[in-house]
Each structure stands twice: as structure tokens, then as C-alpha cells.
Amino acid sequence: MIIRVQNLVRTFGTVTAVSNVTFEVRRGETFAFLGPNGAGKTTTIKMLTTVLRPTSGTLELDGLNPVTESTEVRKRFGVVFQDPSLDSELTAWENVDIHGVLYHVPRRVRRERAEALLKLFELWDRRNDLVKTFSGGMRRRLEIARGLLHTPKVLFLDEPTQGLDPQSRNQMWTIVKNLNSTEGVTVFLTTHYMDEADRVADRIAIIDHGRIVATGSSAELKQQTRADSLEGAFLKLTGTTIRDEAFSAADQMRQFARFVRR
Amino acid sequence: MGVVYILWLRELKKYLRSRVQIVASLGAPLMYLGVLGFGLGPVFRRAGEGSYLQFMAPGVIGMTVLFTAMFSGIAMLWDRQFGFLKETLVAPVPRVQIMMGRTLGGATVAVLQGALIFVATLVAGFRPVSVLAVPLAFLIIALIAVVFAALATAIGSSLKEMQGFQMVMNFFVMPLWFLSGALYPLQGLPAALAVLTRIDPLTYGVDGVRGTMLGTSHFGVALDVGVLLAVGALFVAAGAWRFSKIEV
After folding, report:
1. Deepest in the core among A2, A30, A136, B62, taking most CB within 10 A?
2. What mean pLDDT do residues B212-240 have?
């Protein structure tokens, strides 16, 4: 097990964002947190990635405690947060290069791996362009490439495909799944897209209102609930469907409108 | 060391790429220099104080350094809102190195901006006592830059939203500038104002630049440098402490 989480709780004032969550992630697998916005997915990732302290409970990443051994833990994961974290005034190459320095990757390794990753994510030709000229899909790919530069053991992807068109989503997952099998990097993603969890994750944890409702492969979840789709399983387990589909449709319309205006 | 350097370099690259911003931020000091420098010149001369342009040029340089250095605090809020800060905060390096890289970067940019204004004052007719005085003055300018870049880091780490910085500018940066004696001599001030000017660290910065460039200072350059060093150490420590407390 590369990640163990036991009885994890995080409260913000009177609001309980994560309520007694327990789960494990196996080495090398692709693990998905599936749930609506506000379910506690991001809060859990923030605690695993050392930027937020848990209220109570225990966390373990590669046998280390993110609270007390944060520096060692940080060397072992790469993370793509929900909000972009690139410097848009710098070039793609500079963004990746700074990351390499921050993670103490030796210069030669840094250059070689940056080149390999930028080629893999189809950004090599644009490496000397400022990130502010990049599309949403390119930025996302660049963030993932950057997160992998220091050869982490775990790659956290928090809602990595939000706001991306289907083509960009497909391309992104093809590359990530490929790296998952060639480099053996464990992928921990959060999503509220059923089809995405169904397609890319080896195991899924369904999370709602800060609690994990069920964990298992897509097939297991369907079997357990006698549903014929993951959506059906989700509905039976949580008593609700993921609500913001309409919201994301509106988002897509807006993006489309912006695209046309340009 | 590599971490401090790369983050310092980042600030510098961003500065050199933002030509529009460089020119825009020279606007206010140039206006003070042009309008006040020449506008109040005759009154100042009639009062028997000599050339007002000579007197206020070090103050305008100090103003530029203050504003540019404080601006690095806004840049941090920007990074916080648009993400790059998070990338540095999850990196496996001590926070103090990240803070030092950013702060020294902000300070360097402020010194460069101060150098540009210095050239502008020369064009306007400002004349330092000797060529040798210039590098000495720039050591003091560098100290001013570190003092306020560190203060900006401390403030930027403590604020969560962009709007907060507007308040800092109006209630903090503007008073620092107006109370620094950049525009008026420190002799014979009303008691309350005299006390306030002596609390303002920029007062010692401007006085130090005047002392080196013109050979006349109110407190003496040694005291000026001493105060700047002490305040600088205090602010760097405060900045490092506040920065280490950031949660995202």
C-alpha cells in the first residue's frame, strides 16, 4: 500500500469537510475519488500533499507521515491542483526547469527528462512560448508533465479534466495511463465525471458529504448494487446523482462562446 | 542555494519582460520630480535652502524603491490567486529559501527601477557631489529595497485577497512615503510630525542617500545605515515567519 488513510477528519469551523474517512491505495494502481463538488475530495488531497493539517486521524504516504515528515513526503509525489499553478509569464521550459531545481533534480537528468516529458505531452515545439499563450488543454498537460519531472511515486490529479474538451481529455488520459504502466507511478485522481472514473480507474472510492460510501472496482461497485452502470451504482449508494452536470454544460457553452468570439 | 537563485531569477525575468509595467511604474516618480521639483523650486530657493531638485531627487529615488519593493507583495497575492505560489509551497525545500528567493528578487527589481529613476534625475539636472558617491548611495538604496521587499513579503503572506493590498497601499505605503522627509527638510518640524518621521524607516533611507550623494544628512550616514540594517533584519525575520505560516 502506498497510501493509507485512517479515520481522517478535517473541519473548518463548524463545517466538517472530511468526516472519518478510511481507505488505502495500492502501489501502481489508478485510484479515483468520485463524488460531487464539496464532497471532500480536494480537502483530502490537500492533507495528503502536506498543505493542510488534518483535524484528526492518520495519514501515510509511502510509509511516511505527511504531517511530521513533510519534506520527505513532498519528494515522493507530484501534484496537479484543481486551480492552475503555472507561472503564465514564463515559458513552458522555464516552468518545468524551476520545478526541477525546487526538487533538486540534477541538471543533466532535469534536461533529459524535461525533454522526454514535453515531447510525450506534445509540448516540445512550444517549449519556448510563454504559458499565457497556451490553451487550457496545453496548460493542463504542462502541469502534469511538470509534476512528473522528479519521477514521483504518486501523482495526484485533482479534477484534472475539468473544463477540457473531450478530445483533450482523451489525449491526456492516454498519456497518463501509459505512464502509469511504463513508470509504475501510482495515479490518484478526483473527478465528478462518471465515465472518466469508469474508464481510467482500477479502483474507485465513492465519496459524498465527507464520507466514503463504497470502494471497489467499477465492476465490483455495479455488482454490489446490482446496477448496470456506474451511474446507477452511484445513485443507489448515495441516493442522488451528481448534480452539477447542468453546471458543467453551461461552462462548456461559455467556453465555446469564448472560442467563437476569438 | 539553487532554489534561492532560481526564484530570484524568476522575479528578474518577469520584470525584464514586462516593459509596459516598467514604463508605467516610472510615471508617478517622474511626475513628482517634474511637477514638484520644478514647481516648488522657486519657493525653496527663496527660503534660502538652495536647489529643490537637488534636495528631492534622493527622495524620489527612495519613493521608486519603496513602491517597487512593496509591489512584490502584490505579486505574491497574485501568485496566490493564480497558483504559482502553491507550486513552490509543496516543493521539498525549506520555506525560508523560497521566501529569500522571492524577497531578494523583489529587492533587486526595486534597485533596478531606482537606477532608472536616478538616470532620469540626472537628465532633469540632479548632480551628485562626486562619481564615487553613486556606488555608496546604491548600497543604501539596496538596503532600502531589502527592508521594504521583506515587509511586503510579511504583509503579502498575511493577506488572502488582492483587495487587502489596496488598503495597505493607501494607509501604509503612502504615509511611509509622505513621512519620509523625501519632500521636505526634517529640521524645525512640528513635534508630532517629527516623531512620525523618525518612526518611518524610509526617512533613514532617504537621509542616507542624501548623505552619500549630496554630502549633507540630518542623522549622519552611519546612523542611517545602522537603522536600515536593524529594521531590515527585523523585517526579513518577520517575512520568513509569516511566509512559513501560509496555508493554501
Report:
1. B62
2. 95
Could you tell me which of B200, B214, B234 has the C-alpha nearest to residue B66?
B200
Please answer yes or no on whether B90 and A50 come within 8 Å at the CB atom.
Answer: yes
In this structure, the strands spanning A56-61 and A3-12 are antiparallel
pLDDT value of position A250: 57
CB contact (8 A) between residue B83 and residue A79 = no
Q: How many domains does chain A have?
A: 1
| Nearest C-alpha neighbor of B108 from the set B12, B21, B16 | B12
Computed on alpha carbons and rounded to an integer, the radius of gyration of chain B in Å comes to: 18
The predicted model scores a pTM of 0.87
Mean pLDDT of the region A156-169 = 89
What tens digit of pLDDT does each residue of B37-67 get? Answer: 888 888 888 888 888 999 999 999 999 999 9
pLDDT tens digits for A39-49? 999 999 999 99
Residue A52: domain span: 3-83+153-261
Q: What is the pLDDT of residue A95?
A: 96
pLDDT tens digits, one per residue of A57-98: 999 999 999 999 999 999 999 999 988 899 999 999 999 999
With H, G, I as helix, E, B as strand and everything else as coil, classify residue B10: helix
CATH number at residue A250: 3.40.50.300
Give yes or no for a contact between B206 and B59, defined as CB atoms under 8 angstroms apart. Answer: yes
How confident is the model at residue A246, as a pLDDT? 47
Euclidean distance between CA atoms B178 and B33, whole angstroms: 14
Q: Is residue A195 part of a domain?
A: yes
Q: Is residue A124 part of a domain?
A: no
Chain A: residue whose CA lies nearest to B246: A51
Chain A: closest CA distance from residue B78 (Å): 10
Are A96 and A59 in contact by the 8 Å Cβ rule? The answer is: no
Of B118, B108, B179, the closest CA to residue B145 belongs to B108
HSE-CB of A192 using CA atoms within 13 angstroms: 21
Nearest CA in chain A to B13: A90
